[in-house]
Amino acid sequence: MIITYEDIIIRTLTRVLAPFLQIYALYVLAHGHYSPGGGFQGGVMLGASMILMVIAFGLDTTLKRLSEKADTILFVVGLLLYSGVGVLCLALGGNYLDYGKLAEILPVTIAKARSLGILFIETGVALGVMGIMVSLFYDISTGGLPPAREGR
Amino acid sequence: MEVTVLIQATDEAFRIIEESKNRALEVLNTSVRFTADAKLLEEKKIQAIFKGAERTKAEVTSFAATFALLFFPFWLPLSGFFDLFHLGIGVGCCALVAYISHDLLFVNVRVGDMRTIVKRFFAYIPWLIYQIIIANFHVARLVLSPKMPINPKIIKFKVKLDSDISLVTFANSITLTPGTITVDIKEGEYYVHALDEAVAYDLLFGGKMEDRVAHVYMEAEHVYVQDVLDVARIYGALR
User: Fold this and answer.
1) A12 touching chain B per CB within 8 A
2) CB atoms < 10 A from the CB of B55, how many?
3) Angle in degrees, 0-180, between the axes of helices B84-101 and A8-30, rounded to the nearest 10
4) Which residues of A touch B95 (CB under 8 A)?
5) What is the pLDDT of residues A128-137, one digit of tens each?
6) How many other C-beta atoms are found inside a 10 Å radius of the C-beta of residue A60?
7) DSSP class of residue B145?
8) 3-state DSSP call for residue A139?
9) pLDDT band, very low/low/confident/very high, at B238 (cuts 50, 70, 90)
């Protein structure tokens, strides 16, 4: 269980840092095919920014920002994006996750289609990793009980 | 006989007229009340619309400020690609994060003040670095002298700053200066660990750093020499 502690330094710095953490996470995600980083790392950073908010502002405030339902939808969408791109390549006559085949439906060259396909599945991975991380943290900090049963 | 009937009929007629008058009055009253209610409701609605518009306007302003002043300039040097595709991704990501968390940054800040605060903040940094260098020499002397005349203690004191961000800036300035560390802020009181009294006196009880921080964030209750000088310059320009 997380006990909310009124620490003005941590709260204010979280206020300032968390948005930049999210921007940096999205940068790492979007430039994963040029520089170190990628879906997993970006997703972990996004999740970490949410966990930082739980630590600084408490669980209730953070749940108002990203409810457990929305979180679940996020990682399900991530999984769907990943497997959807894979199955789409399969349907276009290639192997699973054979991004080159995406060139048939996108107006780009084969090489560009591979790069785009990687970006798509990395977005899926990032959403999945972030959702699962935040979901795990919510579960740990409520002791696995739904919030209603604790009288909140 | 006829007279009695006539009188009865007249009475009846008067009664009916009276009744109808009463009813008409009632209807009139009800309609007046309804009109008043409707007017009140309408006024409330208009007020709600205005309030909502104001809030929306504030939200849009903070969204735009967060996006244009902070996130996109932060994204560009990170990315390093300036083709349309990457700029598009950048705009999308920055807009997304600005939408999610525009209420975290820029709380209780008037837009007009922002420029002054940023300017004064950057002017404050060199002074802080100078203070850090001075304190470095002092702490080095303490530590290197054979007797090591340190006298560690935790000092509790009140400050006159009031906004969150100025309290945090002051606390982190104290922590950055060698020899002193902010342990906690509780209800406007600082708990500072100091290596010896001289460090603490220089930093805290001279009140120089606190005054500077208050100057940076334009804390309203205090007038500082620098403020007076600024005003004098503006006054001169006006004349």
Assistant:
1) yes
2) 10
3) 150
4) none
5) 999 999 999 9
6) 11
7) S
8) helix
9) low
Which residue has tokens 């006990």? A3
Q: Mapping DSSP to helix (H, G, I), strand (E, B) and coil, where does residue B158 land?
A: strand
> According to the model, what pLDDT value does residue B112 have?
60
First to last CA, chain B: 104
Rounded to 5 degrees, φ, ψ at B205 are -85, -15
Q: How far apart are CA B2 and CA B119, in angstroms?
A: 104
How far apart, in Å, are the Cα atoms of A61 and each of A51, A65, A152, B67? 12, 7, 12, 23
Question: In angstroms, what separates the C-alpha of B124 from chain A's closest C-alpha?
Answer: 19
Q: B182 has which bridge partners?
A: B192
Q: What is the pLDDT of residues A17-39, one digit of tens each?
A: 898 999 999 999 988 878 888 88
CA atoms within 13 A on the CB side of A44: 5
Query: What is the distance of C-alpha B97 from the center of its chain?
Result: 20
User: Which positions ≥6 away from A115 have C-beta within 8 Å?
Assistant: A33
Looking at the whole model, is its pTM more than 0.95?
Answer: no
Q: Contact, B195 vs B142, CB < 8 A?
A: yes
What is the percentage of chain B residues whose pLDDT exceeds 70? 86
- Residue B225: its H or E element: helix B225-238
The helix (run of H) or strand (run of E) holding residue A84 is helix A68-91
Residue A108, token pair as written in the block: 């780009």
Torsional sign, CA A55, A60, A64, A68: positive
User: pLDDT by residue (tens digit) across A88-123?
Assistant: 999 888 888 888 888 888 888 888 888 888 888 999
**Distance to chain A for B93, nearest Cα, Å:** 6
List helix spans (H) across B66-155.
Answer: 72-79, 84-101, 111-144
Please state the domain extents for chain A: 8-60+67-150
The backbone torsions φ and ψ at residue B123, rounded to the nearest 5 degrees and listed phi first, read: -75, -25
- Among A8, A35, A67, A119, pick the best mutation site for testing chain B contact (most B Cβ within 10 A): A8
Q: Give the closest residue to B139 by CA, choosing from B128, B130, B147, B148.
A: B148
A34 interaction partners in chain B (CB closer than 8 Å): 81
